[in-house]
Amino acid sequence: MYLTVKETSEFLSIPEPTLLHLIHQSRIRAVHDGEQYLLNRDQFNDHLDQMEKVKFLIEEWKNEPIPEDIDIKDED
């Protein structure tokens, strides 16, 4: 499914000028039909999956209990 620049910027939650800049740098693939750029939505699935994994790992790390310091017990 192809999306316009406006739809893609909403889908990825990034500003349109940033998206256009990435297209011009060839960091994002797009098709220009003479009037507008069209972007294939499927090219972002891997990126979004990776971002979800990173968010999950960060939440796990934040929720991990702080280990006790072994030096605290030896202060007698």
Automatic annotation (TrEMBL):
Residues 2-50 form the Helix-turn-helix domain. One of its GO terms (molecular function) is DNA binding. Pfam families: HTH_17 (PF12728). NCBIfam families: excise. This is Helix-turn-helix domain-containing protein. It comes from Salipaludibacillus keqinensis. The lineage of its organism: Bacteria, Bacillati, Bacillota, Bacilli, Bacillales.
